[in-house]
Amino acid sequence: MKARCVLLILAFCAGFHLVAAEQSGAELRKKPVKAEIASKENSGIGNVRVIYDDGTSDFWTKKGNCRDARVAPNGTVGWVVDENLGVPEHPRAFRSTLVLCRKGRVITTIECNCPVISDWIFLSSGKQLVISAGWYHASPRGDYELYETATGNCLETVPENDTNLPKWAKELVKAEEVN
Asked: Could you tell me where the beta strands, DSSP code E, fall in the chain?
């Protein structure tokens, strides 16, 4: 009887190990098709949950300070992280960073010239992205910045009040109007 119990426990442990091994490294093998923010209060701020093409999902963050998660057609996943600066006289002072990942690994992080990222989108199937960034108490939109996704290099910046926006900036304006 004792031998059977030991065998059952060993079989259970081996089965659990095989299931865990199946999920290990899923982000390396599976293609992300959707990213969303899982938050308890429906505030739009929380952790990034990535959904793969086979319907399974994983959480890619744990601190609960993320928002605006997106997936590019090439599988690059990005989201904005807001870090409170800890200034007592300015409790709403924070700095936004855009985090970009591919296959579960951070490929680059982007901090804009202005501290608050208000919106962003991927362009060119994920090879480029546009960010709208501003100041704490300024216009809700902010300057437009075009970046190369793979390196995080800023390619061009256009002020928000520019009356002749380039096509790449207009793509973000159009996306904001849809949402």
From this structure: 32-38, 47-52, 57-59, 66-71, 77-84, 94-102, 105-110, 116-123, 128-134, 143-148, 154-158
8 and 67 together in one domain: no
Residues in the chain: 179
Residues 119, 41 within the same domain: yes
Q: Is 165 exposed, middle or buried (0-12, 13-18, 19+ CB in 10 A)?
A: middle
Q: Are residues 20 and 63 in the same domain?
A: no
pLDDT tens over the chain, length 179 residues: 555 444 434 433 444 333 333 445 666 789 999 999 998 787 888 999 999 999 999 999 999 999 999 999 999 999 999 887 666 665 555 788 999 999 889 999 999 877 889 899 999 999 999 999 887 655 556 789 999 999 999 999 998 888 899 999 999 888 877 76
Max CA-CA distance within the chain? 83
